[in-house]
Write a structure and sequence with these properties.
about 425 residues, mainly alpha, Growth Hormone, Chain: A, 18 helices, about 0% strand, globular, transport
Length: about 425
């Protein structure tokens, strides 16, 4: 289990590092590199749109990788997703900007974001299943925390890398070429991840399906036929996780550095505080879910999100660094309370022969609504009305997730071979 947990954690951390450096770069510099002829607001929206493209590709990636994950196996698919994600990220670091390629530069950026989205779409489901299907029944929440911890670890590494680059380089150097270094580091990280993932074995639950010759011919179709409620309600349940994270990590970074005039290094440092809160809450709540159940903890997290969406921007608007740290930490605490148990909860909703497709597609459908749309909607509401209106939108998304999880069952006592 130690090797399995390490493989789940390291691979997921690398892939989320790749994904989050794009979000940070989108908030800080990509509008100048790829959309210099647009106004500041239009450039920000254009950059966030390329961010949304990756999310739009994630359900497709989950469907493709889920198909082969449910038919061929979890391990081979996870190696492929890591390669796709890592290499596309590194290529963004090599991509010339608008001044060199003209309109071809943002077009190629969108293509690479699509590949990123496809790769990450196949990552989460496989990494979660790798941990959950290997784990003892009474410790599934604990071991499922391994891939979930990859998200805060990847974001922490991405933020530290950008903080280091912006600290040692001048603004001109950082804007010109310094932002590329975090992307290029992906070459090294992918090599490390491959070495670790190639050493793991196939999961026992899937091995039993193969032994009995019970693999699904069309896993995604079967998942929608057998588990339609779980697919749709699971997507709605996870939406608030994306809303809280990507609004706090992407739009709030743009808002505080652009509108409030807070130096980007200060905001990166304050974000690190919030990421630590995310990591700790993800681990301890996931572990706690083995004792008290997954569902009630997720309900508590969604209810907390309803409240926190309304207070996030008023706290940011104070300009006080302590209150800004509290605002961001509260948003990521909401995410951690839900995200920790969700690593075990979502796979437990589905039967083994369609688990990769069901859990992966459901999870990433929530990402389209919460991760792709939310930063764009919050940006538009903040620009046209006020940031507080954007916060109320976040609260409404949290309410949606709360209603969805209320309609789902508890899963902690389920035998994964008998769902």
């Amino acid at each position: 289990m130690r090797r399995v947990a390490t493989a789940s954690f390291v691979g997921t951390a690398i892939e989320f590092y790749d994904y989050y450096i794009y979000g940070t770069a989108a908030a800080l510099v990509l509008n100048e590199a790829f959309f210099p002829e647009l106004s500041k607001t239009a450039g920000t929206l254009a950059t966030l749109s390329t961010f949304a493209v990756g999310f739009a590709a994630r359900p497709l990636g989950a469907a493709i990788f889920g198909h082969f994950g449910d038919r061929v196996g979890r391990k081979a698919v996870l190696v492929t997703s890591l390669l796709m994600m890592g290499l596309s990220t590194a290529c963004i670091g090599l991509l010339p900007g608008y001044d060199t390629l003209g309109v071809a530069a943002p077009v190629l950026l969108v293509v690479l974001r699509l590949i990123q989205g496809l790769g990450l779409g196949g990552e989460w489901g496989g990494a979660a299943l790798l941990a959950v299907e290997h784990a003892p029944k009474k410790k599934r929440g604990l071991y499922a925390a391994a891939p979930q911890m990859g998200s805060p670890a990847g974001y922490f590494a991405a933020t530290c890398t950008f903080l280091l680059m912006s600290s040692v380089l001048s603004d001109e150097a950082f804007t010109s070429w310094g932002w590329r270094i975090p992307f290029l580091l992906s070459f090294v990280l992918v090599a490390v991840g491959l070495v670790i993932r190639l050493r793991i074995a196939e999961t026992p639950a899937f091995a039993k399906v193969v032994e009995k010759q019970e693999t699904a011919k069309a896993p995604l179709v079967e998942a929608f036929r057998l588990h339609p409620r779980e697919m749709l309600l699971g997507a709605g349940m996870i939406t608030v996780v994306y809303v809280m994270f990507y609004t706090a990590a992407t739009y709030c970074m743009t808002y505080t550095t652009g509108t409030l005039g807070i130096p980007k290094n200060d905001m990166l440092a304050l974000t690190l505080v919030a990421v630590v809160v995310l990591g700790l809450s993800t681990f301890f709540v996931a572990r706690w879910s083995d004792r008290v159940g997954r569902r009630k903890l997720i309900i508590a997290g969604a209810a907390f999100g309803v409240v926190w969406g309304a207070v996030l921007f008023p706290l940011l608007d104070t300009g006080n660094y302590v209150l800004i740290a509290v605002a961001l930490s509260g948003a990521l605490l909401c995410m951690g309370i839900i995200y920790g148990p969700a690593g075990a909860y979502m796979p437990e909703l589905f039967s083994t022969r369609v688990r990769y497709s069901g859990a992966g597609v459901s999870y990433n459908l929530g990402g389209v609504l919460g991760g792709a749309a939310a930063p764009l909607v919050v940006t538009a509401l903040a620009e046209n009305y006020s940031p507080a209106v954007g916060g109320w939108f976040m609260s409404s998304m949290a309410l949606l997730s709360l209603l969805c999880v209320l309609a789902l069952p508890e899963t902690g006592d389920r035998d994964l071979d008998r769902v």
